[in-house]
Write a structure and sequence with these properties.
- Strand 2 and strand 3 form a beta hairpin.
- The two termini are 18 Å apart.
- It contains 4 helices and 5 strands.
- The strands form 2 sheets. A 3-stranded antiparallel beta sheet has the order 1-2-3. Strands 4-5 form a two-stranded antiparallel ribbon.
- The protein is flat, with a radius of gyration of 16 Å.
- The longest helix has 20 residues.
- The chain is an alpha+beta fold and 112 residues long.
- Helix 2 crosses helix 3.
Length: 112
């Protein structure tokens, strides 16, 4: 990404990469069948690790990380503090973060 754009990848670049990877994986699975059904069963290994579609929620599931954001000049930089469990095991950890006074607003879509 950086070689093509001259910029370090951000969360949106990673999400775009994962989206393209999932669509490509689903397209390979579809083999002339339903792309929607293939997408529900697709999985892809991206920069954050394994990513798959959840057929029930129709959203992606992947690795979760606890990150710290720090202001550096006019930019905000994040660093990973811990890796959180994926799947059902992460539900309690994510709920605890959402309830924490220190975390503020949290978008699970961009937390990764």
């Amino acid at each position: 990404y950086q070689n093509k754009t001259g910029k370090a990848p951000d969360a949106f670049a990673a999400l775009g990469y994962e989206t393209a990877g999932l669509i490509a994986a689903a397209n390979d699975r579809a083999a002339g069948g339903s792309l929607r059904d293939a997408l529900a069963a697709a999985s892809f290994t991206g920069p954050r690790g394994a990513v798959a579609m959840n057929a029930t929620t129709q959203s992606t599931s992947g690795a979760h990380y606890l990150q710290q954001a720090k202001q550096q000049g006019i930019n905000v930089r994040t660093s990973v503090l811990a890796s959180l469990a994926s799947g059902a095991a992460a539900d309690g950890q994510v709920a605890a973060l959402r309830d924490s006074v220190k975390t503020g607003w949290m978008s699970s879509y961009l937390c990764g």
